[in-house]
Amino acid sequence: MKEESTQNKIKDTALSLFARKGFEGTSLSDIASGVGIKKPSLYAHFKNKEDLFLGVIYKVTVDYNEFFANEAERLNGESPENQLYYLLVKNTEYLRNDELGLIFKRMMLFPPESLREEIYQMFEKTEEVMKSVIKSILMQMDRHKDWEQVFDAYLCLLDGVFEQVFYYSPEEHQKRLENSWSLFINGVHCRTEGK
Amino acid sequence: MKEESTQNKIKDTALSLFARKGFEGTSLSDIASGVGIKKPSLYAHFKNKEDLFLGVIYKVTVDYNEFFANEAERLNGESPENQLYYLLVKNTEYLRNDELGLIFKRMMLFPPESLREEIYQMFEKTEEVMKSVIKSILMQMDRHKDWEQVFDAYLCLLDGVFEQVFYYSPEEHQKRLENSWSLFINGVHCRTEGK
DNA sequence: AGGCGATTGCCTACCGTTCGTTAGTTAGTA
DNA sequence: TACTAACTAACGAACGGTAGGCAATCGCCT
């Protein structure tokens, strides 16, 4: 039951290395020795380095999509505010804990030049899912027309928090998240009341 | 008057390449051919690749520090709100237009492993300057104790906008910035009135 | 002012290493 | 028997970096 296939062991090791050192910064020797085999043996499982890399990235996007959709569904009964809040928190936790988060971020911001298009294509679906989930939450919050402002601001909040995962300790980061969130939701309520 | 020194031409070319392709993804041959000289000639100007790279990064931090301090000073007469807003806008423009912004971001998030410590050390000053400038603006806005919440939220806003520079077209990005800002400043005012 | 040694800035040629990748082979398995 | 997954050996290319040479320029001394 434990016996993980070599194929998967390669992907896991590659994921970890690609996440920490990037595509160009990771060599096939590194990966092979991490797995415990010799470099040419990798070619029994993958066509070449790019193929391996894209396979890893694909796995990452699928995992993230699943995570996000599951989280969203789990929150279905909650108030819209709570949904937004917990989505923010869960998203942060995911991005912080796993190397998945690391490579996700790296590839969104600095993909290897030669693979940029293919990578962006993979992330397109992710972005779509995220946006439609968030939009539907906002629509149930208040139905007036300019939900778009809140939408943009929430996405900015997500991105800002996403970014800060790297700079700060979990505790410090949590504090900043809370503060940013409070001001955000304050702004949302203030605006709706002001109408 | 035009004659730029080779030394500077190297740094400029290196900056551009490092920004777009990263440290590992950029070769000395690339740089040399961009400058119009041969690879070994680079060694008349720099000890090695790391030395060149750190020189570039140093220049970048100095330039950014100057920019930020100047912008802040130029806004001295304005209202705190305006100061915050224009700082956000100017910062965004800076990061979008120049390759300086690109490399700045890349190095803060994904520095080459072997140089991480030195790079972070360089950015320390930058962060300090930014924080003290923003803090002083907030202090003149309202003097009650929990300016820290607004501080955290503003930094998150900065980071979020910073991040989004990459995904969206300038027009789209501008729209998102406006919306995020509106909600932010809404939240700030609502909070102070609520007290 | 004029000669001159040292220095600068670039060159060609080349080094050792590591890179991604291929070829050919062998041991185990079904 | 045929396939799988590993191996050893080695490939050409590209990497960062060095050695040595040559022409222009600079600083200094008479």
UniProtKB/TrEMBL annotation, chains A, B:
Residue ranges the UniProt entry marks as DNA-binding: 27-46
Coiled coil segments of this chain: none
Chain ranges of the HTH tetR-type domain: 4-64
PROSITE patterns, alphabetized: HTH_TETR_2
Domain of life per record: Bacteria
Key words of the record: DNA-binding
Listed name of the protein: AcrR family transcriptional regulator
Species this chain originates from: Guptibacillus hwajinpoensis
